[in-house]
């Protein structure tokens, strides 16, 4: 039998997707519902057993062969006594089932409390991860727009370089300087958000693995508890049911698995790069690579205006 574990098969390629986690939670909720159903079943069975026991006990007290003598009278008395013994055995069964139902209820509540803390932590991480990813993507859009604004401002300076209107040139130059500052500010914010979402992702990866291990442990404990309960009180299991808990876990994993690879980190994408880095890269525990621009061009240079840095592979625009 293969050793299949939750932590290896419930990932999603999309950083903001929680499909794998949701599948595990649904499985645990279904298990909790089963516990409740078994608990209610045993309580109902106990009530039936108790009523049957009382009816049998009352029956055993009724007159039966009062006028008979000798061996037949002894046989009839034994028949009544056996009925009384049967009633007592069913009464004991009712009491035993109520006790087991109580144990099952306590087991269910114990698992619920243990899950509650983990689920609250994971829910908070999912919200943080989704929020930070959105913030990163929004800052990326802003950064790209500010870069376009800077290019347009630089082009306006270049196109009006030979005009005699000094005030107009100064105004264009001021706008270009401000656009440059805005693009650099947006770049820094975008880059910082990439680093932050990388840290959030790393934290979520670790906690997701821990949660998977804890949830799998709970699932195995539940299966084992219910199996023992049924075996002890019903004693009607076939050999097929007396199997290891891992088989049920393996069946669930094979049926509901969502992916074996966690989402890769969000990568920084420089606006001026001809061939940008992929948005999703192979999983890594290292922070995303940092690509910074060099000094921006001087708008006073009337011969050539560069819209990018001097690094190899960057585009160059001449006017």
Automatic annotation (TrEMBL):
Single GO BP term: actin filament polymerization
Compositionally biased region (Low complexity): 156-165
Residue ranges of every copy of the F-BAR domain listed in the record: 4-263
Keywords: Coiled coil
Keyword Coiled coil: yes
Biased composition (Pro residues): 280-290
PANTHER family: PROLINE-SERINE-THREONINE PHOSPHATASE INTERACTING PROTEIN 1, PROLINE-SERINE-THREONINE PHOSPHATASE-INTERACTING PROTEIN 2
Protein name in UniProt: F-BAR domain-containing protein
């Amino acid at each position: 039998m293969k050793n299949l574990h939750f932590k290896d098969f419930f990932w999603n390629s999309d950083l903001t997707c929680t499909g794998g986690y949701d599948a595990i939670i649904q499985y645990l909720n279904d298990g909790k519902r089963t516990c409740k159903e078994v608990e209610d079943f045993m309580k109902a069975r106990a009530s039936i057993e108790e009523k049957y026991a009382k009816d049998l006990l009352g029956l055993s007290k009724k007159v039966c062969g009062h006028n008979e003598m000798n061996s037949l009278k002894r046989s009839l008395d034994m028949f009544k006594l056996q009925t009384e013994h049967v009633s007592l055995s069913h009464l004991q069964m009712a009491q035993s089932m109520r006790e087991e139902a109580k144990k099952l209820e306590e087991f269910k509540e114990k698992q619920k409390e243990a899950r509650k803390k983990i689920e609250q932590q994971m829910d908070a991480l999912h919200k943080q991860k989704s929020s930070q990813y959105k913030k990163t993507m929004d800052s990326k859009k802003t950064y790209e727009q500010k870069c376009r604004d800077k290019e347009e401002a630089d082009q306006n300076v270049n196109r009006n370089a030979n005009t005699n209107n000094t005030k107009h040139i100064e105004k264009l130059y001021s706008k270009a300087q401000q656009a440059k500052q805005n693009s650099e500010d947006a770049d820094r914010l975008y880059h910082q958000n990439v680093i932050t979402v990388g840290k959030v992702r790393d934290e979520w990866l670790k906690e997701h693995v821990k949660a998977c291990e804890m949830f799998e442990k709970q699932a195995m404990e539940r299966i084992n508890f219910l199996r023992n309960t049924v075996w002890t009180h019903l004693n009607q299991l076939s050999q097929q049911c007396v199997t290891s808990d891992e088989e049920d876990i393996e069946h669930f994993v094979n049926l509901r698995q969502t992916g074996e690879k966690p989402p890769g980190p969000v990568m920084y994408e420089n606006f001026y790069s001809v061939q940008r880095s992929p948005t999703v890269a192979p999983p890594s525990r290292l922070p995303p690579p940092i690509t910074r621009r060099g000094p921006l061009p001087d708008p006073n240079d009337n011969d050539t205006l560069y819209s990018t840095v001097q690094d190899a592979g960057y585009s160059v625009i001449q006017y």
